[in-house]
């Protein structure tokens, strides 16, 4: 879930983007590096001694089919945000696909435990309000490392609050249930990224920063990014 996963997303974009994108430091996009680096070190320390061990333990004791099903359920809940931003970006085809995914996965997929939508050829979109702002021409602004929440930009950081209105946690009044779901969501996401850490090389801060910025540009432009080569 976007709002609750940003601590784990310290590694998300780094795992998605490979070394060719991170060879050069985009210092012109990171004028606040002197502030961002200490925050990054704090986040990395927290991940190393808390989040990562929890994720490793979760992965060790959870059967693969159950881990996959839980992951699918969180993704299914996240499709609500995808759909909302499809509409805000005036993408009727994507909105139709995400609507169908929600319907089929929530019903036939048992609240998303089984991703029947993908098996039916309904490929999941990945949209958020930061991408919506970018789609309509808002620049990303400087790179920002947020405490606990990880990499972001001046455009994307406040957009997380807007996206939180599409998350179920705002509407769960039973505090224990809300906290368990919140925590499991974070741990599940971090566990799914454990195998991606080997992609990180060199200066971890620079790698993750450039990977994040490249990935966000790719998403905002729907993959239509000019190759530097």
UniProtKB/TrEMBL annotation:
InterPro entries attached to this UniProt entry: MlaA
Organism per entry: Pseudomonas fluorescens
Pfam families per record: MlaA
Keywords: Lipoprotein, Signal
Family as reported in the entry's similarity comment: Belongs to the MlaA family.
Gene this protein is translated from: mlaA
Signal sequence interval, chain numbering: 1-25
Gene Ontology process terms (BP): intermembrane phospholipid transfer
Name of the molecule in the record: Putative phospholipid-binding lipoprotein MlaA
């Amino acid at each position: 879930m976007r709002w609750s996963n940003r601590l784990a997303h310290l590694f998300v974009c780094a795992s998605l983007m490979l070394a060719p994108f991170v060879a050069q430091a985009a210092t012109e996009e990171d004028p606040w590096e002197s502030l961002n680096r200490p925050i990054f070190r704090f986040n990395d320390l927290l991940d190393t001694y808390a989040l990562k061990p929890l994720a490793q333990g979760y992965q060790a004791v959870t059967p693969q089919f159950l881990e996959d099903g839980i992951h699918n359920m969180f993704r299914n809940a996240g499709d609500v945000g995808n759909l909302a931003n499809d509409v805000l970006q005036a993408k009727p085809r994507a909105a139709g696909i995400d609507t169908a995914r929600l319907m089929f996965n929530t019903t036939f997929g048992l609240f998303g435990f089984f991703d029947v939508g993908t098996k039916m050829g309904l490929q999941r979109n990945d949209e958020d309000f930061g991408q919506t702002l970018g789609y309509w021409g808002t620049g990303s602004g400087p790179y920002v490392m947020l405490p606990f929440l990880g990499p972001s930009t001046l455009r994307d950081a406040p957009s997380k609050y807007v996206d939180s209105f599409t998350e179920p946690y705002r509407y769960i009044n039973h505090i224990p249930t809300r906290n368990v779901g919140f925590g499991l969501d974070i741990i599940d996401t971090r566990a799914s990224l454990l195998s991606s850490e080997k992609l990180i090389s060199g200066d971890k801060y620079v790698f993750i920063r450039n990977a994040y910025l490249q990935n966000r540009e790719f998403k905002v432009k729907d993959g239509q990014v000019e190759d530097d080569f």
